C-alpha cells in the first residue's frame, strides 16, 4: 500500500513538475538552483498527509514558490561575492521543460537579470502573475499575504521593470539584428558592428571565475564595439558560430572542437542593440550542444 501511495504521489508530482521548474527557474536564474527547490518540494510532498490535501497542484506550487523566495534571499548573498557580473543560466527552450509550457518575457535573459533587482517577494508576484496568470487572491494565499498587498507588490515590480527596460523590437527585427551582429563580429567589422549598437549599449560577460572575462560591464557604443571585436579575436578563427534558441529567443552559440565556449544574447530597442549578455561560464552552458 505504501509503495502504491508513493507511486500515486509521484504521478501527481510529475504532472506539475514542469510548472514547478518554471517558477523556480524564473525566481532563481539557474537550473541547478531550480532543481534543488523542486526536489525539496518533492520531499515535502512525500512527508505530507496527502489524503488531507484537497488541491495537490496548489499545494506543490505554493510550497515551491515559498521555497524559491527563501532560496532567492540566500542566492543574493552569494552573488554579492561572485567573480564579475552574474548572468542567469540560459536554457534551451526548444526542448527544456523549464519553459516548455509557458513562454513569455519573464523567461528572457534580459528580464531575468532585471528581476534580480527586485526583492524576492516582488519577484515571486511578478512571476506568478506575468508568467502563469495567477489571480491576485491566489498569489496572496501562496505568499501568505493579502490580495491587496499582492497587487501592490505586482505594481512595484512592473513599475521597476518598465523604468529599467525599453520597448523591445519585434522578433523579426531582433533576428535581423542578431544575424547582422553575427556577421560583423565574425568579420571583425568595427564600423558595421558599431552601427548596430545603441549609444548607451552595455555588454555583460559572465566567466564565473573560471573563464577570463571582463569584471565590470562594458558601457557605451565604442567601448562595446572594441570589446566584442577583441573578444572574437581572442577566441580565434577556428571558432564555430551558429544561431540557437535560448530562453524563447534567438542567440549565438560559439563552440570549438564540439564544445560550447560562449553564448551571446541580445536585447534591442528601436535605437539598436541595447544589451549584450555573454555567458562564458562553462557551468552555465551545459544545455547547449553545438550543431544539435
Main sheet: which strands, in order across?
2-1-6-5-4-3
- Low-confidence stretches at least 5 residues in length (pLDDT < 50)? none
**Total helical elements:** 10
Residue share in β-strands: 15-25%
Q: What is the helix fraction of residues, given as a range? A: 40-55%
- Cα-atom radius of gyration: 20 Å
Structural class: alpha+beta
Please give the largest β-sheet: 6 strands, mixed
Query: What's the helix-strand series?
Result: HHHHHHHHHEEHEEEE
Query: Distance N terminus to C terminus?
Result: 44 Å
Mean pLDDT: 90
Shape estimate: globular
Number of strands: 6
Summarize this, please?
It is built from ten helices and six strands, in the order αααααααααββαββββ.
Description:
The structure is a single chain. The protein is of the alpha+beta class and 292 residues long. The protein has 10 helices and 6 strands; from the N terminus they run H-H-H-H-H-H-H-H-H-E-E-H-E-E-E-E. The protein has helices at residues 2-28, 31-47, 56-79, 109-115, 120-131, 136-142, 147-164, 171-187, 190-196, 221-235; strands at residues 197-206, 218-219, 240-246, 249-256, 259-269, 272-279. Strands 2-1-6-5-4-3 form a 6-stranded mixed β-sheet. A hairpin with a 2-residue loop joins strand 5 (259-269) and strand 6. Helix 8 (171-187) runs antiparallel to helix 9 (190-196). The longest helix has 27 residues, at 2-28. The chain is globular, with a radius of gyration of 20 Å.
